[in-house]
Design brief:
The chain has 16 helices and 7 strands. Helix 4 crosses helix 7 and helix 5 packs across helix 6. The protein is elongated and about 110 Å long. It starts with 9 loop residues before the first helix and ends in a 15-residue tail after the last helix.
């Protein structure tokens, strides 16, 4: 097809037939319609910039009409006169659009969560994802660098208005962590949550239900040893004060994690909140309970298998339900309360706080110190756990008198 150097008309475009090779129908000012052998028709702009000839795609006919193509040509030529290369500008605009997509709050939050998956235990990671989901519903598509404190406040007050003050606090915390990650990766300059201090109703601290008075602890231990229920539940109840592990870790204990000869329970990193292995020294009393239980559940994976299927651990409500049957309501004692019980009593009895905190598997902020603590405190933790088990026995066997604990003096 011969090239047309005159102005294009709608009729000329309609009558243009495809040939064996691409043909160009020129309109003037560098604009032309390229007709391909397969019948497709593309608008192009030929221009020179910086001494080089270039091409710019302006769209596909008939989606882009002749009139629209001319408007795009005129806009591009205006840019050229102003010293702007329209092709380079288009690439920059596309990069900016892609960057905006990758730098949306939702994208940065997803990226942060993906990195946290290697650090957090699965349940903690799921909780973090759920908390951020409360914010991405409103902030998800916004470029993270453009989000203002009032926007964040509006999201948080929406949660707060439903009476969920603790959830509001935790969502705010997660938003802040995402912004700090965005700052570190060059996608934001500041954290807007820092400007919200005093703008939200602080949640009232609610201590976990736990018994810490020695007489109350003695009564609980006597009740536990008098409990008549499933043997696995009885064993879990007896081990709860001895080990004071997180309830989720206790119910998911596997026989492969327990070394009765070394008197250790090694909880693998994948089950721990901070993805670090945690060792629980086993006092003789705990060893006795586990040896007896091994004859019942030792052939299964879990030390405390579900009563419905041995392929799953006991329900997360089992311990609390047993405490309810013993007469302890949720405001008095819970499965998690055994940790507060041990922490309170051991601190009052003079054991070093660092030793107690390490046994509770509370994270050490200083990573170098954390490595030191893991190695340095193991001998002391073994002594503490054995002494704690003896003290619990004395309480349980007491006749109502307060039992003195022969603990360690603080260093």
């Amino acid at each position: 097809m011969a090239a047309n150097t005159g102005k294009l008309t709608a009729l000329a475009i309609k009558n243009a037939k495809p040939a064996d090779k691409p043909a160009r129908l020129f309109d003037g000012g560098g604009l032309y319609l390229e007709v391909m052998p397969n019948g497709s028709r593309y608008w192009r702009l030929k221009y020179r910039f910086g001494g080089k000839e270039k091409r710019l795609a302006l769209g596909v006919f008939p989606e882009v009409s002749l009139a629209v193509a001319r408007d795009k040509r005129d806009t591009a030529r205006t840019a050229i006169r102003n010293g702007i290369d329209p092709s380079a500008q288009r690439k920059a605009d596309r990069r900016q659009a892609l960057l905006a997509t990758e730098s949306s709050f939702s994208a940065v939050a997803d990226e942060w969560l993906a990195r946290q998956a290697a650090i957090l235990a699965p349940v903690t990671h799921r909780t973090a994802s759920w908390l951020l989901g409360q914010a991405t519903a409103e902030l998800g598509l916004r470029p993270i660098a453009e989000i203002t404190p009032p926007e964040v406040l509006m999201v948080l007050r929406g949660i707060e208005s439903r009476g969920r003050k603790e959830t509001t606090r935790r969502v705010n915390q997660k938003i802040s962590q995402v912004f700090r990650y965005a700052i570190a990766t060059g996608r934001a300059e500041r954290d807007p949550t820092a400007d919200l201090r005093g703008a939200l109703i602080p949640p009232k601290p609610k201590p976990r239900a736990a018994l810490t008075n020695p007489k109350d602890v003695a009564g609980l231990l006597k009740a536990i040893y008098g409990y008549e229920g499933q043997l696995t539940t009885v064993a879990a109840l007896k081990l709860s004060p001895l080990l004071f592990a997180r309830p989720g870790n206790l119910r998911a204990m596997e026989w492969t994690e327990v070394d009765l000869d070394r008197a250790e329970w090694r909880i693998p990193p994948g089950k721990m909140k901070m993805r670090e292995e945690h060792v629980v020294p086993l006092a003789p009393q705990a060893i006795g309970i586990l040896r007896e239980l091994h004859g019942l559940t030792g052939r299964h994976t879990y030390v405390f298998p579900s009563i419905r299927t041995a392929n799953r651990p006991m329900s997360e409500n089992t311990i609390n339900a047993a405490l309810r049957r013993l007469g302890y309501d949720k405001e008095t004692m819970t499965g998690h309360g055994f940790r507060a019980m041990a922490s309170t009593r051991l601190n009052e009895m003079g054991w070093a706080p660092d030793v107690i905190e390490r046994q509770l598997a509370h994270a050490e902020r200083n990573k170098v110190r954390a490595v030191y603590n893991r190695a340095q405190y193991m001998a002391e933790r073994k002594k503490m756990m054995a002494a704690w088990a003896d003290y619990l026995d004395e309480l349980r066997n007491s006749s109502g008198k307060v039992v003195a604990f022969k603990g360690r003096k603080r260093g």
